[in-house]
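Lab meeting notes turned into a lecture example. A postdoc, R.K., suggested we walk through two folding results consecutively so the class can see how the record format repeats. The first protein's sequence and structure tokens come next.
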Amino acid sequence: MFPTNSTNSIFSTFLLTGIPGLEAVHVWISIPFCAMFLMTGVGNVTIMTLIWKEHALHVPMYLFLAMLAVSDLGLSLFTFPTMLRIFWLDARELTFPVCSTQMFFIHTFQDLESAIMLAMAFDRYVAISRPLHYSSILTNSVIARIGLAIFVRTLTVQVPLPILLRGLCFCHSNVLSHSYCLHPDILKLSCSSTKINSTVGLFVVLSTMGLDFLLILFSYVLILKTVLSIASHGGRLKALNTCISHLSAVILFFTPMIGLSILHRFGPKLPAHVYVTMANMHFLIPPVMNPIVYVVKTKQIRDKILKLVIKKGPGESQVTFIT
């Protein structure tokens, strides 16, 4: 293992960190994390399988939900295993290529999830403001083009990050602050100039998740304006009810990230495990909770799952958005 405090060595490996101060109980902490990993896999695979097999679910809302499930599953596959590896085996060392690869996929799926949530906000806006033209506006070809645009945008901004990292030297320390490799965390360990890397990284964050968040807020301003123009109280409640699942997903994804940024820049100095916990909430909680939220609040998916569980025969049903 490479030393962690020498200023004369060029490190080629990184050491991940579990939960600071709680190393003695890492094995016990691994139990809920392992349960979360299993729930993430089962929940998101179930969502994807149902939408793939059920022709009645081949509508824009559910197609975007399937994309969200793919990004959630991908994010969990590149975060949970290294955490469990630390908790169970105290295996903290990663080579630079492995670390930069993990970093690339974590941030890629993070950006994909942000963009998909923006697409889902647009879907909700069209469904509420133009219900009669919904199917003609969001056709399958439009959904495919939106998905391709999300994929191309994400790769365009994420591919340069690991490439730029290859030009840095790491000689002060090789201990990362989290249980997985993140771009800002790696840059902190460099003894080379990181001005270009930091600038590109900031641009990527602002042009993807930052812009997506502002556009999601703008979408809901337009949705609220449309809802308030509905004459009946029941109609307003029904329209707002179709947005609850998506709003929950947005809150789960963006709140920990915004809170962590505020604490880092303006908050008091807090114990290291507080920052690690908030980062874990941002990366680990949405993949676990999104399938639960959508199953609970989406009647069509809930009914399909109940039919699988209790072995009911197929019945006629009409696609509804959210109850």
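The second example is placed directly after the first for contrast:
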Amino acid sequence: MPVLTTDAESETGIPKSLSNEPPSETMEEIEHTCPQPRLTLTAPAPFADETSCQCQAPHEKLTIAQARLGTPVDRPVRVYADGIFDLFHSGHARALMQAKTLFPNSYLLVGVCSDDLTHKFKGFTVMNEAERYEALRHCRYVDEVIRDAPWTLTPEFLEKHKIDFVAHDDIPYSSAGSDDVYKHIKEAGMFVPTQRTEGISTSDIITRIVRDYDVYARRNLQRGYTAKELNVSFINEKKYRFQNQVDKMKEKVKNVEERSKEFVNRVEEKSHDLIQKWEEKSREFIGNFLELFGPDGAWKQMFQERSSRMLQALSPKQSPVSSPTRSRSPSRSPSPTFSWLPNKASPPSSPKAASASISSMSEGDEDEK
């Protein structure tokens, strides 16, 4: 493979071209011992000073096209990404994921600037440097963390950590008196751009906290923090605690209202069920009443049957008109020609028929006399 030559460096000392001269036999015999990407996630990523690359093999310069084809095959492509990483969030993680997946076999080194450099060139941070280091160590895409990373990358730093490419978003980063601190990296062909995540940044998170300061101060007072820890004055402390009490009362009233609504809804549902059941029962009762006492009801038929039976039992059997008269004995009174036994014929259909029958029977008795 081609190796770097001393005259193929830019003014900044970063290699710009490749040499076509083959490496010496001694260099070919040396194997790469660069650290490999993490295969398991059971432990945090190591720090660079704990596992620095001690590989003595020549570290040839790669092009982006070669790296994307999987070259070289005997070592991973070492990609570097740096930043402050204050209040580590999903935007940071997505940028590191892009840097990690730029090439088939990448070893991601992440540089984190110290508090002194950050406060000098950017501003005060919420998390201190130790907290920011640890946040990066526990990101799954990171293979190695470099503490106290430089604000501007130097050739010595790139050579020390054997960095092949630098990953960052393509927006010019003006700082430390420079229009773009990555300008010399871009000119050397070592810069690989990543995409920013819209809608999330450390500045946005801090803006939310500052905007809703009273809410978070009351929240932490309620959680047990003292006014001194929150840097809150005595008057503001009393105001926040009073507001917390008011909010609690509002919450209680809201809960009571919700429970009352639930109770009213349950009562309405039960009353609706009761009314529905009452309507069903009333319909059933009215139907049964009409079936029993209506014009064609069973009670009327039963009453008519019983009336007919009573009239039949009370009515005498009528003698036939053509029957011969019996001779009367002078010593005896004439015997009646009717019997008090119930007639087997069909009973009279109405009380009028029954009365007519009795009248005819009376007329027959008068004729006999």
